[in-house]
Amino acid sequence: MLETLHVRDLALVKEIEIDFKDGFNVLTGETGAGKSIILGSVNLALGGKASADLIRNGAESALIELVFRLNQKELLKVKELDFDVEDDGVVILQRKITPQKTVSRMNGQTVSVSQLKQLSEILMDVYGQHDYQSLLKASSYISMIDDFAGDDISDLLGNLKAEYSNYRDLLKKRENENSDESVRNREIELLKYEIEEIEKANLEVGEDEELENRFRFLTNIRKIMEAVSGAQMAIDGDEASAIEMIGFAGNRLKSVEGYDEDVRNIAESVAEAESLLFDIKRALKSYEDKLEFDGEEFSVIEERLNIINHLKDKYSPSIEKILLVCQEKSEDLNRLMNYEDYLQKLENDINISKKLLLQMCEKISGIRKVAALNLEKKLIEALKSLNFLNTELKIMINSDLEKITATGYDNVEFLISTNPGEKLKPMHQIASGGELSRIMLAIKSIFADKEDVSTLLFDEIDSGISGTTAYKVAEMMNGLSDNHQLIAITHLPQIAAMGGAHYMISKKVIDDRTVTTIEMLDEFGSINELARMLGADEITETAIENAKELKNRRTEKRNIS
Fold first, then answer.
1. Rounded to whole angstroms, how far apart are CA atoms 301 and 307?
2. Helices (H), 291-420
3. Residue-wise pLDDT tens digits, 531-545
4. CB atoms inside a 10 Å sphere around CB 219
5. pLDDT at 556 (0 to 100)
6. Is the pTM of this model over 0.70?
């Protein structure tokens, strides 16, 4: 669930912090008070497009911070994405916006916008006007049916997607084949030459590194000899050598070691150092005896490296990849040398793949049609509870065997009639904004138990509704809050009254600057805000009583549930 929203220097917000509660949270306020800033800040923190124009005038940067506490399912999903989260399930998302750049962090670690969006799918569902409009897109209907079908269809869809990708690859291969025999013959000659060039080199994995190391050694052997000789002179030369000096030091200490144990220990260490110098002297002499420049070996290595580097420049930067290139070219040559057989096999593979796709699509379509019937019944029931009393709904699934995609060959259409006597028509032709918001709520209520996301944020779910319908919407949202954290930005008192936690957003002038503020209302403050929302010009006893009655409806509903 979302525990805290902290916003600083964003638009009209100087600084606000909201501690959300479990269950139903409502945010209200006058038109223009800044309710949209709340939704906007959440979207920004979850990876929405950021702009320097959002920074409050006079501020250097804007900051949005969301603090979530995950349940076990959410925690496991986040860890599966390789995000670093402690077992307490606390996730802190920060988005800092400056004129130069935007930086996003999760638990202190920098994350990309794409990673934020991955997280957002686990942490929270946000529904605004744009999301309601998705109901007008036919492409969203198939996803809805598939989500409702759940495990019955998910594995099949994964297999279909993989086979469809294979089918597209086969079609692409056929499309790219060149039927010009003269062109193929030129390709054959070139492939033969390139394969022979690579095979003739008789490459071995790792030999380039060994040869380069030996070439580097031979190239610098004079420097090595000078360094070894200089080291020998320093250790055991004619004048003031290291062995002579440390021997002198050892003798001086040995002459007095009997007087003090510490001196004896130091004398022993000096003796060990002298012994080590003799070992180094012998090692240097042995190494020097082996140093020899072989001009013939140098020429052979240089020539071999020239061959290898030529092949690297031409084909690939490593021997492993050059050998893979050779293998691929051999396969291409075999394909062109047996071109008719290859074409026949390719055509057979395409036919087999298409047949398999059709079988998968048929099975998926059957599951969808069963799921659609069940969803249709549930959706009609949910819509009736939202005051769509005479609504008819039909989910149509039509299959087109010639239009296979990665999701199958089905076209899904939601047909609806919201008025008695009217024919069923596609949803996008008749549904108003208010109807779309209620339909989305009905869908969400059906899918609530199937989803693991614990926090739902609704913005303008009450668009275009009033009266009895508003009560129905409020009651359904109240029911959703039994198993989810709900955050609703609303202008309807019927919905606001259902909130267990009520926040009021307002504009104030502070130090000659307009700022948006937010406060959590107590019972008295909530009743007064509800009275205002009920349209009272002034807070009278009658308005207060009406507000209390709305609050009592919530108590009655909670007691019944």
1. 10
2. 295-314, 319-337, 339-385
3. 988 876 678 888 888
4. 13
5. 67
6. no
Cα 552 to Cα 507: distance, rounded to the nearest angstrom: 29
pLDDT tens, residue by residue, 115-170: 888 888 888 888 765 566 666 677 778 988 998 898 889 999 999 999 999 999 99
Buried b (16+ CB within 10 A) or exposed e, 308-346: beebbeebeeebeebbebbeebeeebebeeebeeeeeeb
CB contact set of 3 (below 8 Å; sequence gap of 6+): 19, 20, 67, 68, 69
Secondary structure E strands in 175-279: none
- Phi-psi label, residue 125: left if phi above 0, alpha if psi -120 to 50, beta otherwise: beta
231, 343, 350, 368 from 355: Cα distances, Å: 78, 18, 9, 20
For the record, the structure tokens of 375 come out as: 């969803």
Taking the mean position of all CA atoms in its chain, how far away is CA 89?
18
- Please state the φ and ψ torsions of residue 17, each to the nearest 5 degrees: -140, 130
Instruction: Please give the biggest Cα pair distance in the chain.
Output: 122
Question: Given CA atoms 43, 12, 102, 96 in this order, what sign does their dihedral have?
Answer: negative
Residues 18 and 5: beta-carbon distance below 8 Å:
yes
φ, ψ for residue 10 (rounded to 5)? -115, 120
Which residues, listed in sequence order, are joined to residue 24 by a DSSP beta bridge? 486
Counts for the chain of helices (H) and strands (E), in that order: 20, 15
Return all residues near 115 (Cβ < 8 A) that are at least 6 apart.
81, 83, 104, 106
Q: Taking a C-beta distance cutoff of 8 angstroms, is the pair 243, 235 a contact? A: yes
Match 């298409």 to its residue by tokens.
354
Give Cα separations from 250 to 197, 215, 246, 266, 275 (angstroms): 66, 44, 6, 9, 11
Paired with 489 in beta bridges are 27, 459
Give me the pLDDT at residue 241, please.
86
Please count the other Cβ atoms lying within 10 Å of the Cβ belonging to residue 74.
23
Low-confidence ranges of the chain (pLDDT < 50): none
Taking the C-alpha atoms of residue 408 and residue 349, their distance in angstroms, rounded to an integer, is 19
Site of tokens 């009651």? 475
User: For residue 201, what pLDDT is reported?
Assistant: 94
CA distances to 298, 320, 330 from 309, rounded to whole Å, are 16, 13, 21
What is the token pair recorded at 163? 């086979």
Judge whether 438 and 464 are in contact, CB under 8 Å. no
What is the strand order of the sheet 109-111 is part of? 13-19, 2-10, 62-69, 90-97, 102-106, 109-111
CB contact set of 17 (below 8 Å; sequence gap of 6+): 4, 5, 6, 7
Of 16, 72, 22, the closest CA to residue 41 belongs to 16
Query: Which pLDDT does position 486 carry in this prediction?
Result: 92
